[in-house]
Amino acid sequence: MKRMYESASDAETRAIGAAIGALLQPPKMLILTGDLGAGKTTLVKGLVAALEAGDEDAVTSPTFTLVHSYEGWQDGQPVQVMHLDLYRLESERQLATLGLTDLMADDALVLMEWGEKFASVVEMADGVIQIEHLSEDRRRITLEISGLEIPGQKIV
Ligand SMILES: Nc1ncnc2c1ncn2[C@@H]1O[C@H](COP(=O)(O)OP(=O)(O)O)[C@@H](O)[C@H]1O
Ligand SMILES: [Mg+2]
Fold this sequence. Notes:
The chain is α/β, with parallel strands linked by helices. Helices cover 26% and strands 31% of the residues.
């Protein structure tokens, strides 16, 4: 399924992140695409806050640590948000040391900035959140995911 959103502010992108978080049935792995400053990390902040997995200000770019993990709740069920940024990773060999398949717990929502750099990640991912930087504060955000959406339920 495919869903498109428009954002005119940082706050709107956070709200879209929250809405996307509510739609996803774990386990899911999604690639976040978009230029530097497009709003990938901002969207994750909104998603993490909505799942009560952490304070928005606690969500920072995992550029140096590669992986940040947050424990939260979705409809009374525990959910683990894993936020990765692969910008600085250069090879599939380096990527292998992250043990991506081990991150995919049953209750995990894995969000990977710059995941499209690696064929193995593209193959593993359930879908993409694409953020297009339209103008200073405007963004087009497209969620495209292989799962099925049943009205009123989550994307499985
Ligand atoms: N509509 C918008 N959506 C998201 N971020 C926005 C928007 N308008 C302005 N911004 C600003 O753009 C920057 C996005 O940064 P960030 O989320 O770290 O980007 P990325 O992770 O894609 O590199 C933030 O400073 C944010 O406040
Ligand atoms: Mg970022």
